[in-house]
Specification:
The complex is a heterodimer of chains A (120) and B (267). By secondary structure, chain A is mostly helical. Chain A has one domain. Chain A has five helices and no strands. The radius of gyration of chain A is 25 Å and the shape is rod-shaped. By secondary structure, chain B is of the alpha+beta class. Chain B folds into two domains: 94 residues; 119 residues, 60s Ribosomal Protein L30, Chain: A (2-Layer Sandwich). Helix content of chain B is 61%, strand content 8%. Chain B has a five-stranded mixed beta sheet. In chain B, helix 2 runs parallel beside helix 4, helix 3 packs antiparallel against helix 4 and helix 5 crosses helix 6. Chain B is elongated. The termini of chain B are far apart. The chains are: A mainly alpha (120), B alpha+beta (267).
Chain lengths: 120, 267
């Protein structure tokens, strides 16, 4: 019986130990940074819906942080960070594809020009 | 006795370890394994896949702890990271391809220029052949120049669309004109004498323009083409027979003498 109480106490302190403001604060800072990076890539236009929902989530994470719900805050902030990274990846992907399409069009034009001149 | 207690402990440990596999985690694991097999992804250097692997382990731990919230959290993170890994690999492939294409550009530009030079040489060499070709186009020497009979440039009644025989001749003519920039061309449209003259005017103009359009589309500078139309005037045959009318529904092309512009229209 005594051991059960000891384990329960240890678990309790462990839980308390995890729920410090430090890690969640860091996760929020990381999420904020990732969002700004995605924004610099132009994610607000290329992945607008994703960016909006990530912004809302970050605001919720900050709310939990203020209410000292650190676990919730950290989870949400971690999700925001990957969502921002996804928005960033989507944006870079769309830009790269558009540039490739442009290059292909230019090349096609050049090829046709060479062909026209050869034909006369 | 000690053995038995050890046995019980082992059994208990096994029971604890034997948590049910979570279908969500299993699904994420499958997509993680699929990503490992994706030839586009540089698996060894994919930070996202490395993180996804840690997330999957965390999700499994959470499943053992029966913490559904954390299972959902870590599978979500892993899922998103796997998606990012695919997207990033795709982006890198697109960028690689764009770079390759950019490298091809200068050589293609050179090719275009070389083709142009080749054409210039070929032009000189083919000049005689072109003159012969003009003969082959059944050009009739007149005072105004070489009038191409262009037997094919006849039209169906009230039609202005070029027939295939006509386009064959005209594309050879276009080649001739491009090779001989000092020769301009006069295109004249005619109609038969059926129907009101205003309609004949229109149809004869459209016939001349059809020829002009075709030549321009085949690379002849439009400034070198003069178009005229005469309605039903200037028949080559009597309009009383169907055959005669067919011959009259025509466009006539005159290759003007070297460095001579089209004469002004008849008053």
């Amino acid at each position: 019986m005594r051991s059960v109480v000891a384990i329960a106490l240890a678990g309790f302190f462990l839980a308390i130990g995890c729920a410090k403001p430090g890690p969640s604060q860091q996760a929020i800072a990381q999420a904020d940074y990732s969002l700004r990076q995605a924004r610099e890539q132009g994610a607000d236009t290329e992945a607008a819906a994703l960016m909006r929902s990530a912004d809302e989530k970050l605001a919720r994470a900050q709310g939990y942080q203020r209410e000292k719900e650190y676990d919730e805050a950290q989870r949400l902030a971690e999700q925001v960070a990957v969502e921002a990274a996804l928005a960033d990846a989507l944006t870079r992907n769309r830009v790269a594809k558009a540039q490739l399409a442009d290059s292909e069009a230019v090349l096609k034009e050049l090829r046709e020009e060479a062909e026209r001149r050869r034909r006369f | 006795m000690q053995r038995i207690s050890l046995f019980v402990v082992v059994l208990l440990a096994l029971a604890c370890a034997n948590t049910k596999p979570n279908p969500e985690i299993e699904r994420v694991k499958r997509s993680y394994n699929a990503a490992l097999e994706d030839p586009l992804i540089d698996v060894k250097n994919s930070l996202q896949l490395l993180e996804a692997e840690k997330d999957i382990q965390a999700a499994e731990q959470a499943n053992r702890d029966r913490d559904e919230t954390l299972v959902a959290h870590y599978t979500y993170l892993a899922d998103t990271r796997i998606r990012i890994a695919h997207l990033t690999a795709e982006t890198q492939a697109a960028n690689r391809k764009a770079r390759e294409l950019a490298q091809q550009r200068p050589s293609l530009r050179l090719e275009a220029r070389t083709a142009e030079a080749d054409v210039a040489t070929a032009t000189a060499l083919k000049y005689e052949a072109q003159a012969r070709e003009l003969d082959e186009l059944e050009a009739r020497q007149t005072e105004r120049g070489d009038v191409l009979a262009l037997g094919g440039v006849h039209f169906d009644f009230n039609q202005t669309e070029l027939k295939p025989e006509a386009t064959r001749k005209l594309s050879r003519l276009a080649g001739f004109l491009i090779a001989n920039p000092n020769r301009d061309v006069l295109v004249e449209g005619y109609a038969d004498a059926i129907g009101p003259e205003s309609a004949n005017e229109t149809v004869s103009r459209e016939r001349a323009e059809a020829v002009e359009r075709y030549l321009v589309a085949n690379g002849v500078n439009p400034a070198r083409i003069t178009t005229r139309w005469h309605g039903s005037l200037g028949p080559v045959e009597a309009n009383s027979s169907a055959d005669g009318r067919t011959m009259n529904r025509r466009a006539q092309v005159t290759v003007l003498p070297p460095n001579v512009a089209a004469p002004p229209p008849a008053p």
